[in-house]
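Human: Can I borrow your eye for a moment on a structure tokenisation matter? Separate attempts, laid side by side, tell us more than any discussion would. Could you pick a protein and write out its sequence and tokenised fold? No explanation is needed for now; the record alone will do.

Assistant:
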Amino acid sequence: MPGPAYTEKKEMSDTPLPRSAGGSVFSKETLINGRPGRIRCIEIGGQVFEISPGPLTVVRLEDEWFEDVSNPHAVIDALRDTTGFTPDLLTFWQRMPDVEPKYPFALEWEDIAVLPITSYDHWWRNQIKSRTRNLIRKSEKEGLIVKEAEFDDEFVRGMTAIFNESPVRQGRKFWHYGKDVETVKKQFSRFLFREQMIGAYLEGEMIGFMMLCDAGRYGLTGQIISSTRHRDKATNNALIAKAVEISVSRGWDHLIYYFWSDDSLAEFKRRCGFEKVSVPRFYVPLTWKGRAALRLGAHHGWRALIPEAVKAPLKKARRYWYGLQDR
């Protein structure tokens, strides 16, 4: 069930922001591609919006997976009134399960991976295939134990060991390879107030883990990763099974595994019961540059303009190159 924080934000949605709600631009520390960096932000009505770098200035809610824009119309007014700063484009979406468009702005549909939650038994019997059930049973027979865990020094050491197994994962350079225990502890302790650790253990050794996030109205799979030395243990399948069990106990109606994509990861999501769900993302141009970019389809950046016929061989070449480095 939604917690008090979500209820409060829902009540705020009809409340206009004061004229002074638009704050000044500031910078804050974050992780960019797994490395420490800084981003520009602006606070409006008590919510922090991230400002993207580049020729097109795009503003979006920093924690958009975890909260909704309280009052889009008031945010637009505040951005237009902010002295010395007017972004080119504001973008925001409607979070699950609110998928019917509510606002009169330009929109596109964004695909995310969603697992509807009713009960663990329903998931086990009806939402996954027999192959996935057999993999989870096999992992249990081989001694894999999956349980809720604490983010303590032992857990962080297990994370670090898994991170440092290989510099390449899923055909690309792995962001967290080469980090030491203290770095991992510092970087992954920022959001413990909304995360539940899940560990997968084989003979006492942690060979996989998940950081399951509480997004108020649904659960969200954070970091999920397992040891390459134990590929045959179906560790990630077992972690998803535990996440479903926890989701049921928390009363979440949905478990979300971020975006949907046409790759091997999407196939894993499908086998674990996740479905493709389209949610509306809105775009509000605030300058002539924003209007032009939206009209030309350039608001997604230059990578989005590359034809799929060109992207596929480039991705294949990248996987091959990183595969050579991993040998």
Remarks:
- The chain has two domains: 4-107+280-325, 118-252.
- Residues 308-325 form the longest helix (18 residues).
- Residues 1-15 have pLDDT under 50 and may be disordered.
